[in-house]
Specification:
The structure is a single chain. This protein is an alpha/beta fold and 422 residues long. The chain is built from 14 helices and 24 strands. It has two domains: 204 residues, UDP-n-acetylglucosamine1-carboxyvinyl-transferase, Chain; 209 residues, UDP-n-acetylglucosamine1-carboxyvinyl-transferase, Chain (Alpha-beta prism). Strand 20 and strand 21 form a beta hairpin. Helix 5 runs parallel beside helix 6 and helix 8 packs parallel to helix 12. The structure holds ligand EPZ.
């Protein structure tokens, strides 16, 4: 397994190009199942999760072709041969469950393995199941698979979500586009990736309104057609690289960044004494005056502070002036980066879903281990300003959600290299 070695101390300067959003692409790709005409995605990120989703769709008989070094992906389910999403692929990536809604909507059946838990939590699918059953699906759970069918097709319905689940909103939205009648999704997730999904579905001929609000209304249509869609900028990669100059010093311009993608996050940075400025090409970030200050953070569904930036924010707060309290309200076990940061000298106390971080002057480099995607990048960020070398092991987690992380950071002056695993 590869490792990444970061040698701290170099202030940063330059521009980092932000890629297309992993969490948008992973819901856009299954949209191909909703039509027998091709779907073309541009500005696609080059990530291992995308390859996993391609494998899953190909295992169903769909065609997935990458072009222009992976930035363009053309998909077609014209020749679909199966509606069985196998455990061997689904267990590698929870987002595989996003084929459930489209398969049910178009083929009126689906056999999708439960993704199983992951490092950050149990991650059940009850909200997805309740929503699709409200639309007439019959779903049985046995031997680790969801066996779903919708004889005669799904029907439009009022679908109140008990929690604004991103994945459940996406599965329901995709399913509703081909249901008979009108579907009203209440307490829908409002993430930019949902807005991007609605844009893509509308380009395919779907009739949707209200995306980005808590109530999404969908008029079902008989069929969807070919479309080309540009994947929205990745707000989590954006927030991650905005933190790099805050931690390491210097200044960075994140190309493609837009304030509306990270407004709650940018507000917190402002409270820490960080200047975030909109430029014609993106967002420019630098500390206003020397050391950044502590701030309290609570993760919430969009437009609140994103849980996917909590680990990275903690890495920054480890060297802030003062004490910060972070509350993780979305996942039940998302502080695994804390013990690793403590190996680097961070002063953190975790009690359940709350972590208290007492800022120290400087962290010390150490060998640390990545446990999930966002935890792994938080360790790299911490290493940018730590004394000496930080060796982050198990970086396969990193490659799931960050393309060319060592190239992007070394291009702005970080001392970072990847070493092949033993
Ligand atoms: C999406 O996961 C993202 N993944 C996650 O990003 C992100 O952390 C999460 O949304 C929250 O923003 C993708 O988009 C591929 P949820 P998802 O359904 O859809 C509970 C990353 O690092 N829940 O909004 O799975 C669930 O257990 C990843 O890129 C149920 O209880 O998130 C969790 O506690 C990590 N029952 C909470 O809701 C359900 O049926 C939020 O889950 C569904 C969810």
């Amino acid at each position: 397994m590869d490792s990444i070695i970061v040698t701290g101390g170099a202030p940063l300067s330059g521009k980092i190009a932000i890629a297309g959003a992993k969490n948008a692409a992973l819901t856009l790709m299954p949209c191909t199942l909703l039509s027998d005409e091709p779907l073309t995605l541009t500005n696609a990120p080059r990530l291992s999760d995308m390859r996993t989703m391609s494998q899953l769709l190909q295992s169903l008989g769909a065609e997935v072709t990458s072009m222009q070094d992976g930035k363009v992906v053309v998909l077609s389910s014209h020749g679909l041969t199966s509606t069985h999403a196998d455990y061997e692929i689904v267990r590698k990536m929870r987002a595989s469950n996003l084929v459930l809604g489209p398969l049910l909507a178009r083929f009126h059946e689906a056999e999708v393995s439960l993704p199983g838990g992951c490092a950050i939590g149990a991650r059940p699918m009850d909200i997805h199941i309740t929503a699709l059953e409200a639309m007439g699906a019959e779903i049985d759970l046995r031997d680790g698979y969801l066996y779903a069918k919708a004889p005669g097709g799904l029907k439009g319905a009022k679908v109140p979500l008990r929690f604004a689940s991103v994945g459940a909103t996406e599965n329901t939205l995709m399913a509703a586009t081909l249901a008979k009648g009108t579907t009203v999704i209440e307490n829908a997730a409002r993430e930019p990736e949902i807005v991007d999904l609605a844009k893509c579905l509308r380009a395919m001929g779907a009739q949707i309104e209200g995306e980005g609000t808590s109530t999404i209304i969908v008029q079902g249509v008989d069929r969807l057609h070919a479309a080309t869609h540009r994947v929205v900028t990745d707000r989590i990669e954006l927030g991650t690289y905005m933190l790099a100059p805050v931690i390491a010093g210097g200044e960075v311009e994140c190309l493609g960044g837009k304030m509306e993608l990270v407004s709650a996050f940018a507000e917190k940075l402002d409270a820490c004494g960080v200047a975030v400025t909109e430029t014609p090409d993106g967002l420019h970030v630098k500390n206003r005056n020397g050391r950044h200050a502590a701030v309290d953070v609570t993760t919430e569904p969009f437009p609140g502070f994103p849980t996917d930036l909590q680990a990275q924010m903690m890495a920054m707060l480890c060297t802030a002036e003062g004490t910060s309290v972070l509350e993780e309200k979305i996942f039940e076990n998302r502080f695994m980066h804390a013990p690793e940061l403590m190996r680097m000298g961070a002063e953190i106390e975790v009690h359940g879903g709350t972590a208290t971080v007492r800022g120290v002057e400087r962290l010390k480099g150490a060998p640390v281990m990545a446990t999930d995607l966002r935890a792994s990048v938080s360790l790299i960020l911490a290493g940018l300003a730590a004394e000496g070398e930080t060796r982050v092991n198990r970086v396969y987690h990193l490659d799931r959600g960050y393309e060319q992380v060592e190239q992007k950071l070394s291009a702005v002056g970080a001392r970072i290299e990847r070493v092949q695993g033993e």
